[in-house]
Write a structure and sequence with these properties.
2 copies of one chain form a homodimer. With 424 residues, the first copy, chain A, is an alpha/beta fold. Chain A has 2 domains: 3-60 and 367-418, Urease, subunit C, domain 1; 62-363, TIM Barrel. Chain A has helices spanning 83-96, 101-117, 131-144, 167-180, 201-213, 226-235, 242-248, 267-276, 284-289, 297-302, 321-338, 348-360, 393-403; strands at residues 3-12, 20-30, 33-38, 50-60, 62-68, 120-126, 147-151, 153-154, 187-189, 192-193, 218-222, 257-261, 279-282, 306-309, 377-380, 409-414, 417-418. In chain A, helix 2 (101-117) runs parallel beside helix 3, helix 4 packs parallel to helix 5 (201-213) and helix 11 (321-338) crosses helix 12. Chain A is globular. Chain A binds chain B through residues 72-73, 75-77, 79-80, 103, 106-107, 110, 288-289, 291, 293-294, 317-318, 326, 329-331, 333-334, 336-339, 345, 347-348, 385, 387-389, 395, 398-399, 401-403, 405, and chain B through 72-73, 75-77, 79-80, 103, 106-107, 110, 288-289, 291, 293-294, 317-318, 326, 329-331, 333-334, 336-339, 345, 347-348, 385, 387-389, 395, 398-399, 401-403, 405.
Chain lengths: 424, 424
């Protein structure tokens, strides 16, 4: 038995209504999973080694449900454009560089280091269309100890010349990766059609077959921008909605699919997502930066749609999940003011839940300190930001989320292992 | 003659249309003022000592036109409320603590250190209603070498019991400070009626007289929140608008008044502001955090209203002006999407101009590297954020604004003096 007791202030969300906070409580971990949290340590655990953190507090690690690793170099660049122009002007040319394995290795090393630094213990990542560079990313993520789904992008139409794939080759490369990594546990492949406009029906059909054959998860983009939605309508006039295109090709797999953005989803689209247990990856910073719009997250929550948060770099300009979480709250306030007074605004527990257990559920029991959850955690040292007075644990978390910095994270755990990864 | 030549990459805005960027150029400073910037150093300056910064770049220091120093301890706290509730629940109780000079000294030291750290070389600050603690802040700011206007707040109605002042005493205290600091150059007092609801007509009239007598600048709040605007209408039904109340009492002084927020200004209010040269302090983060709304900044720009940016801590949750600048761009995109398709969106040069020369103009020739401007500058080391490739100076600035951190600022200058202030 590999077991450990941690004594620390703890704060997490079991649901999206409220925080569970416990001062100087005991968290018992066995084989990477939480056995329980206790105000007083039960006698049967007294023989387990104990580590005490007296000044900081433990929270679940952050989960980023949507990011484009190969766009890291463009962070902060080109945010005066909207989606379709931005893709052609910034995203595609940068992604084309990943045909060069050396370049991929350099950039991906930096991305992995930054994910570690930012306390993003689980992430769902778009690579590029290149098999080679995607395998590099899979290898680097595995080495880091962080959890992830990593996807080789598929795109065989309406893309830049350099990135447009041959349909059969695209499917073969995808299958080769699915096969090679089928027994991995912490870093796994995910089927990744870029988005409907860049995938031919034949490609989507083939990917649907592979998803079925390998029981693989799927990620893509959905209803991010009005021009994009119009374009999909033109390409697939016979489908009821954008989401129904994915559905037709078997790409909305029960509880195994992530759709990024979902800003302009229709009622029937939301209903389809709910039925299929699709996870909406809400990427508020990206949706603001690219002038896409504000996703109706309160509607998704009320409608029972699975929901998490995504940084969507480099449509979004930061990997720092607390900033994504704050921006989610902020845009929900503006949506309330300018679009729908009845929907309410995202609360801090709701947003924190999305950034931990909400997105974490895509990985299974991840994102909470409840029994049987993976012990993915961050130790937060807030002494630099706490100020003069005594604060409740909830206020300390609030200050960390709104004003904290990467330097406040002093330990990172995934499945019970502390990750000391700092390679550059 | 106290003169210095700096050789460095330079980037700044002369106007809000475009950046002026010069690689490895010469900036000549004499007695704290810029004599000029040159691609090649003119012969007549060759005898002046030269400092060369080969890897970083120089930008003008940031100007924060609106912040509440005594609310620093509340940074990140209480942002689930709207303005009027938030004032009573968070702002007023915290400000009441500043009757204690020891507490004021502790908190204000931290605020001053943070302004220095964040590269905010000029700021316009609300203190509290307490004369003593306001004088502490004036002293600490002066010691730091940063430039500022610091105001003792006036409030004699509709405030918490602890903070409500006797009208005569409020005026006497204000005059005592105006008198004591009348000959200061870099850190000066500013007349600071909190906002119309908390100032009686007699108080506002007295403050208008003092402003005239001491030729003093004025700051207050204007049209931040719809409930507040309604309240002002009830209190002053005979005034054409909220701004006209200030105007009636002589508080809109030609080019010497700052009004924070201006989210809900009417057409005639904007016209009055333009006529009087009032500076609107746009505080986008605060306006989002407190669910106030989005100020129509593009309208202000088109209408020729003076404009700068404010952090408005702790309605806003950060002193970091690049984040304020980014949020100004972000909300302008959402305003464009949800309120007014015709107004356009804030560009990066526009927003950078607001954060430097736009707000700096309230201080005179501040916020640019043009001839005769105060040499207020930051040396930015972007090696940690620049990435693998060669970037233009404009892209490097863009990356710094969107992804940089305080640690990127390695030197700070005000009026030609390098500020090494780090006292804790």
């Amino acid at each position: 038995m590999d077991a450990q007791v941690y004594k620390s202030d703890l704060i997490f969300t079991k649901n999206n209504k409220e925080f569970t906070s416990m001062e100087q409580a005991y968290l018992v971990v066995e084989n990477g999973k939480v056995l329980g949290v206790f105000d007083r340590l039960p006698g049967k655990y007294e023989s387990i080694p104990l580590k005490a953190y007296e000044s900081g507090f433990l929270i679940p690690g952050f989960v980023d449900l949507h990011l484009h690793a190969p766009q890291y170099e463009n962070l902060g660049i080109g945010l005066d454009e909207e989606l379709l122009t931005w893709l052609n002007k910034y995203a595609f040319p940068e992604e084309a560089r990943f045909s060069d394995a050396g370049y991929a290795e350099e950039v991906y090393k930096e991305v992995v280091r930054r994910l570690w630094e930012n306390g993003t213990t689980r992430s769902v990542i778009f690579g590029t269309a290149h098999k080679g560079s995607t395998e590099i990313l899979l290898r680097l993520m595995k080495k880091s100890g962080l959890g992830a789904y990593v996807g080789k992008v598929n795109m065989d139409r309406n893309s830049s010349q350099e990135l447009t794939e041959d349909t059969e080759r695209s499917l073969e490369d995808t299958e080769a990766i699915l096969d090679a990594y089928r027994n991995e546990r912490l870093v796994k492949p995910i089927i990744t059609p870029r988005f409907v406009p860049s995938c031919s029906p034949r490609l989507m059909e083939g990917l649907g077959r592979l998803a079925e054959k390998y029981d693989a998860p799927v990620q893509s983009h959905l209803s991010e921008n009005t021009d994009e939605v119009e374009w999909v309508k033109e390409l697939h006039p016979d489908c009821e909605s954008y989401a129904h295109v994915y559905e037709r090709y078997g790409l909305l797999r029960q509880n195994r699919t992530i759709m990024a953005h979902c800003v302009y989803c229709t009622g029937s689209e939301k209903e389809l997502m709910r039925e299929k247990g699709v996870f909406a990856a809400h990427c508020p910073i990206s949706n603001t930066d690219l002038t896409s719009g504000i996703a109706p997250v309160k509607d998704f929550i009320a409608g029972g749609v699975n929901l998490g948060l995504g940084s969507d770099i480099s449509g979004g300009h930061t990997l720092w999940m607390p900033e994504v979480l704050v921006h989610a709250i902020q845009v929900s306030k503006l949506y309330y003011l300018y679009k729908d007074k009845d929907c309410g605004r995202l609360t801090l527990p709701e947003a924190f839940y999305l950034a931990t257990k909400g997105g974490g559920s895509f990985f299974g029991k991840v994102g909470s300190f409840e029994e049987d959850y993976s012990f993915d955690a961050l130790l937060i040292d807030d002494c630099a930001i706490i100020g003069q007075g005594k604060r409740s644990l909830e206020e300390r978390l609030q200050k960390f989320i709104y004003t904290g910095e990467k330097g406040c994270i002093i330990k990172r755990f995934v499945e019970g292992n502390e990750l000391g990864y700092t390679e550059r």
